[in-house]
Write a structure and sequence with these properties.
Structural class: alpha/beta
Largest sheet: 8 strands, parallel
Distance between the termini: 28 Å
Number of strands: 20
Number of helices: 22
Helix content: 25-40%
Strand order of the largest sheet: 7-6-5-4-3-2-1-8
Length: 605
């Protein structure tokens, strides 16, 4: 794998978020021509001194530099499909990890700060609006007493900006000014009242405190042009650090925030740029790649200060965020839903074990074609593909492995150096080999032939995973039957593999012979709907082997009922491990670390 070693990588990795593409409408020659034109340009922009990224308590900054409004260069650059910087790379500082302290009592909030320090955070955000009965002159001296375990970012968020404070501005301003006087390293004020607050301070802001001027949009992510104007507005206030938080209605919205981050990085404008909710999750993990000043991680689940905020432990231990930089390759799992997936835990640790500079993230995707065209740079190097996108992936890839094409489903996508997307299917080998090994371990079989040969193999589901198992079972000589909630879908797959089709209702009474094999490839029984099952316990008595592709929870109700009926059960975890090993080899060109990956799945998921 060719891992580009320079800062230019981060710029070439900027997603093409301003290009609107409908499914099947790609025009690669035109885009290549456009990108060549872009690469020939050199932005003529003023260089400004590097803003300190080190928390002020560790290295006090000099006098606050004036804000630098955007030039028309940025507007022009954001209107094209890719962004490339001037030839000279710029110095970068590490993205900071900030843990919001959200306790209701000052003593508990102080304890949260200490816990954040123990977890490896760089600073703590004191959410004063969360404190019950907050009295500034009583509580702030205790919260900001030195020595502190972490630098402090003080926020007193009003309800109209997503916080809990409901009073007038002046008492809030007084509390923030007191926090500055007591040595807070950062204070956050909302753009809407920034000018009013700065006037209130009358030039009394300590030089050791940085002023963050923030804007929060809880409805959507504005266009690139609107984000540009918003950034200029915030800079015009004299902010030391810009903060823009928006909301993703689809994952491609995040690309516009990445563009803002990169252009601010090039112009040496410190910025916190994050996109809220599950579709914006990648903004929180990948911001070090694109130059974000800091990202937020909650102390633990349930203590988030914004939607879909990861824990600081996950940022450090799962996503290895300390090592993410401009040349880090991005991989991930594309699905809907995708939050349940254990793939990030598995692949990130496997990457780390072989020294690969890469990160694996969850992509919650609504429109696969639009996603792939938006995040089309070489740094978005490969994807796992799960429900419901495996069949669409066949149509979205430029090249498809013959087996994946025969199956009609792709679960692995690799981006070649020329930009072409190549699709593979590792599901069928992972699942079929897991079922074969499960049978061999518990039932007497002929060693020279597959234990599936000649047996009746019932597949529940006609989606991508169902197609993979039906194909694999047929290749092994099984007699395949397709059952699906929608009969037309079952019939379509049945016709492809030459087997009968049933509805799930019909499957309840289907038992033409004993010793059948059942494979569930649907999401029925997946967390959080763990009490659901695709087939009744009574109907399971006709099966000798039952496989469930669902692996969250590890033991599904289907497998539990089947075991109680005396069947050999094969967990979806085994398929998950084997298909993931195949994906790892496609991603890296290296042999998969089998024992490590098994240990991760069995102990950490």
């Amino acid at each position: 794998m060719n891992l580009l070693p320079t800062w230019n990588t981060a710029y070439s990795a900027i997603p093409t978020g301003t290009r609107h593409v409908t499914q099947g409408s790609t025009n690669r020659p035109a885009l290549e021509k456009q990108n060549k034109c872009i690469r020939s340009r050199r932005f003529q922009q003023t260089r400004y001194p590097r803003a300190e990224r080190t928390p002020p308590s560790h290295q006090p900054p000099g006098r606050r530099r004036p804000a630098h409004p955007l030039t028309t260069t940025m507007a022009a650059a954001m209107s094209v499909s890719a962004v490339v910087p001037p030839a000279a790379a710029v110095a970068r500082a590490r993205t900071l990890l900030c843990v919001p302290a959200t306790a209701r009592a000052p003593r508990e909030m102080a304890a949260e700060v200490a816990a954040a320090a123990a977890l490896g955070a760089d600073l703590a955000e004191l959410r004063l609006d969360r404190l019950a009965g907050f009295a500034p002159r009583r509580d702030l001296p205790a919260l900001l007493a030195k020595p502190r375990t972490l630098p402090a970012l003080v926020t007193y968020r009003p309800k109209w900006e997503g916080g809990e404070y409901e009073g007038e501005d002046e008492p809030r301003f007084e509390a923030l000014q007191l926090a500055m006087e007591l040595g807070a390293e950062y204070v956050d004020i909302e753009l809407k009242v920034a000018d009013k607050f700065i006037k209130f301070m009358s030039g009394k802001k300590p030089e050791t405190c940085k002023l963050i001027v923030s804007s929060h949009n809880y409805e959507n992510t504005p266009s690139a042009e609107e984000l540009e104007k918003l950034l200029a507005q915030i800079q015009a206030t004299g902010a030391d650090i810009v903060k823009i938080a928006t909301t993703a209605t689809e994952i491609v919205d995040v690309s516009r925030m990445f563009q803002i981050l990169v252009h601010c990085q090039e112009k040496q404008v410190p910025i916190i740029g994050l996109v809220m909710n599950d579709r914006g999750f990648i903004s929180r993990v990948l911001c070090p790649k694109f130059g974000g000043y800091l990202t937020f991680g909650s102390l633990e689940k349930g203590k988030e200060s914004a939607p879909a905020q990861p824990t600081v432990a996950d940022l450090i231990n799962v996503y290895n965020i300390r090592q993410i930089g401009p040349d880090t390759k991005v991989f991930g799992i594309i699905g809907k839903p995708v939050g349940h997936s254990k793939s990030p835990i598995l692949h990130n640790e496997a990457f780390r074990s072989v020294g690969l500079n890469a990160v694996y993230v969850p992509f919650l995707v609504d429109d696969l074609a639009k996603f792939l065209h938006t995040y089309s740079s070489p740094d978005f190097a490969g994807f796992s593909c799960t429900i419901p996108h495996k069949e669409d992936a066949v149509r979205c890839c430029d090249e498809v492995d013959p087996i994946a094409r025969d199956i009609g489903a792709v679960n692995t996508i690799i981006r070649k150096p020329n930009g072409n997307l190549v699709g593979y299917n590792t599901d069928y080998v992972g699942a079929i080999s897991a079922i074969e090994d499960g049978i061999r371990a518990t039932q007497s079989t002929r060693s020279t032939t597959s234990p599936l040969a000649g047996r009746l193999f019932v597949v529940i589901g006609a989606g991508g995973a169902g197609k993979a198992l039906a194909y694999g079972a047929k290749e092994k000589g099984a007699r395949v039957v397709i059952a699906n909630r929608t009969f037309a879908r079952a019939q379509e797959l049945g016709n492809l593999i030459g087997g009968p089709a049933l509805t799930l209702a019909e499957l309840e009474n289907y038992h033409p012979e004993e010793g059948m094999i059942l494979a569930n490839t649907t999401a029925i029984g997946m967390h959080p709907n763990t009490n659901d099952t695709p087939l009744s316990k009574q109907a399971l008595k006709s099966y000798a082997v039952v496989f469930d592709a669902v692996y969250t929870p590890k033991e599904t109700r289907l497998l539990r009922d089947a075991a109680e009926c005396g069947a050999t059960v094969v967990s979806g975890l085994e398929m998950f491990i084997r298909q993931a090993e195949g994906q790892f080899e496609h991603f890296t060109g290296m042999p998969a670390p089998d024992s490590l990956m098994r240990d991760i799945v069995l102990t950490k998921t």
